[in-house]
Amino acid sequence: MSHVPDLAAPPAPVTAQPRGWAVAGVLAGAAGFSALVLESGLAMFDQKEAYADAALMYAETHDRSLIIAVFLPLMVLAALTAAIFGAGLRRWLAAQSPAGSLLPELAGWGALLVAALSLVGSGPVTEVYFQVLHTYNPADPDIAMTLQRLLDTLPWVWTGLLLSTGSLTVAALRHGAAPRWLGWVSAVFTVLMIAVNVFPQQYLTGYLGAIWLVIAGAGFALRRRPAV
């Protein structure tokens, strides 16, 4: 006896896709932007002579130890949540893009590069922090300020995120794998990030990338759920 389906039965419920990865993108952008704003205070010195004198740099940095202490957890949070966002974005685009497309992998790798460089770039924080607090007595200003200049450079280089913004641009505008408005926003940020690397103002990629993460993360997190 053949089985006749019950046409009156309600359709199976649509399983809502998790959005935690998108929220992680918002956290990554907010934490990264906040960390870079704080860190910018370490790169500027009150005395012009300090830029040519490690001892003067050291003296001024000693009064900014709280900034150094707060910067590290913020940047680590930004790095870890950026990696989560990248993994989620890769999965989302893989489900929406044509089979065999490189876009999902490129988008994920872009966020992962930002995460890696943020961790590596914030690494000198611990050493600089203990140096300026005179835990090493006497501390060597040349060593401490060399580490600080690395801290003033590496965490800002979020250029790897160009892979994510560019991939999302193509995925959204060409394949409809993401909202078109987000594709156009990503296109604008892609152009801006290319521009600041050409001129060269690469430090600005940190700010631009952080803002894009907040917008993209919020866009995916607040997207409409499919109708049941």
Polypeptide structure, described:
The chain has 228 residues and is mainly alpha-helical. The protein has one domain. It has nine helices and no strands. It has helices spanning 20-43, 54-62, 65-96, 103-122, 124-132, 141-151, 162-175, 180-198, 204-221. Helix 1 (20-43) runs antiparallel to helix 3 (65-96), helix 5 packs across helix 6 (141-151) and helix 7 runs antiparallel to helix 8 (180-198). It is elongated. Residues 5-15 have low confidence and may be disordered. It comes from Actinoplanes italicus. This is DUF4386 family protein.
Defining key terms:
228 residues, single chain, 0% strand, elongated
Poorly predicted parts:
5-15
Order of helices and strands: HHHHHHHHH
Largest beta-sheet details: none
Name the overall outline.
elongated
- Total count of domains: 1
Number of helices: 9
Strand proportion, as a percent range, falls in under 5%
Please state the CA-atom Rg, rounded to the nearest Å.
22 Å
Average pLDDT taken over every residue: 85
Tell me the structural class: mainly alpha
Instruction: Work out the number of β strands.
Output: 0
Give the N-to-C terminal Cα separation: 32 Å
Which range best describes the helical content: under 10%, 10-25%, 25-40%, 40-55%, 55-70% or over 70%?
55-70%
Keywords: Membrane, Transmembrane, Transmembrane helix
Protein name: DUF4386 family protein
How is the topology of this model organized?
Layout lengths: L19 H24 L10 H9 L2 H32 L6 H20 L1 H9 L8 H11 L10 H14 L4 H19 L5 H18 L7
